[in-house]
Specification:
Layout: E1 8-12, E2 14-15, E3 19-21, E4 30-32, E5 37-38, H1 65-73, E6 78-84, H2 89-94, E7 99-101, E8 107-112, H3 117-133, E9 138-142, H4 164-171, H5 176-184, H6 189-206, H7 218-224, H8 226-250, E10 257-260, E11 274-278, H9 284-298, E12 304-310, H10 319-331, E13 336-340, H11 347-356
Length: 361
């Protein structure tokens, strides 16, 4: 990493299960991660207000690899803890009452609900643990909100051909906590649930077509339903409050920044030190547009705006294209680039970094 000109290590502190191809591993090629484990040693007293406590990965049982990475990085690298929040199948299976329950009442076992008090206590304790006990430059939050029904399991089936918008509807949470808190905020929750159920039934009944007047996007659905629009605003506020509570309650250490692995959100701009835009498998012109949109949406906000660039799936196709993509990210207004990721990237692409990054000083 030093030879390539990189200055930051974004290391998994917690991670969900996944199936990976590791092209340059010395021990394996295809690998299933343990899933729902921590690669640091948690201070368990911090989790006394919740039944959810981190399970240390066997890999890290004897060695606290986050602490060891910090020691080896020294002052040459900024260390960021890449931290997974609500994507946690083990907790979901053990405590289904804490998971997302969709409009049909189905539990999504991989998706904890961030409106549930115990889930919030776990997420806050997790961030406190990392921020206070490790010399981190920052904590990058992934899945610190509601998860989608997609991207939760290895063999997912959907022969209806549900659109991304319809999958979002199928992922909306109507668990007991969401119902009670949204109702307290003045939302007619049952009406929203019934509307969502009706739209999904329509899609399933008429597939591969859709009924006349079927909403095609979140904006379309908001225009058709005041209650749905209110419910969406309430959900946004739930996530805003959670992240703000993490910032005010967990980040007493001035050295540690809070980074959001989502696009710029005005509701979090006073609590979060960094936002991100995803330019996976995007050409230079597409990357430029994505980054300009992020910069324009953030106005005069002066924190970290990082562009996530994937090394793999055929893009970039050459060292020159990588140079063009990085140049586009910076020209678009991003002031940081995050390369995803070391373990999966084709070795040739990793070599291109060493030749390319010196161009940017």
């Amino acid at each position: 990493m030093k030879e390539a000109g990189l200055n930051t290590i974004c290391l998994a502190a917690t991670y969900h299960q996944g199936w990976f191809i590791h092209p340059h591993s010395r021990t394996h090629c295809a690998y299933m991660t343990e899933g729902d484990v921590s690669y640091f040693h948690p201070q368990l007293f911090l989790y006394e207000r919740t039944r959810l406590t981190p399970t240390v990965a066997p890999l890290a049982a004897k060695t606290d690899w986050l602490a060891e990475a910090a020691r080896r990085a020294g002052s040459e690298f900024r260390l960021v803890a890449w931290t997974i929040g609500c994507h946690h199948t083990s907790f979901g299976l053990a405590h289904p009452e804490l998971t997302v329950h969709n409009a049909f009442g189905d539990s999504l076992p991989h998706a904890l609900c961030p409106a549930q008090p115990e889930v919030r206590e776990y997420l806050k304790a997790l961030c406190t643990d990392l921020a206070m006990n490790y010399p981190l430059w920052g904590i990058q939050l992934e899945a610190f909100g509601w998860m989608s029904i997609a991207h939760g399991h290895h063999h997912e089936r959907n022969l209806i051909g549900l659109t991304p918008f319809e999958l979002d509807l199928l992922s909306l949470c109507f668990c007991n906590a969401c119902r009670a808190q949204a109702a307290e905020a003045g939302v007619e929750v049952e009406k929203v649930r019934a509307e969502v159920e009706a739209v999904l039934h329509g899609a399933m009944r008429e597939a591969p077509e859709r009924p006349r007047g079927h909403p095609s996007s979140t904006l379309d659905m908001r225009d058709k339903s005041v209650e749905y629009s209110q419910f969406c605003r309430w959900r946004e506020n739930v996530v805003h409050r959670l992240v703000n509570e993490i910032k005010t309650g967990c980040f007493r250490a001035e050295h540690c920044r809070l980074l959001q692995q989502t696009s710029f959100d005005p509701g979090l701009s006073k609590s979060v030190n960094g936002f991100a835009c995803v330019a996976f498998e995007k050409s230079a012109p597409e990357t430029l547009r994505i980054c300009r949109d992020l910069r324009n949406s953030s106005g005069d906000w002066n924190g970290l705006l990082q562009c996530l660039i994937q090394l793999g799936n055929g893009i970039p196709r050459s060292e020159h294209e990588l140079l063009e993509i990085i140049s586009a990210a910076l020209a678009g207004g991003c002031n940081g680039v995050n390369f995803y990721n070391y373990s999966e990237a084709p070795p040739k692409m990793l070599q291109w970094l060493a030749h390319t990054l010196p161009e940017f000083g």
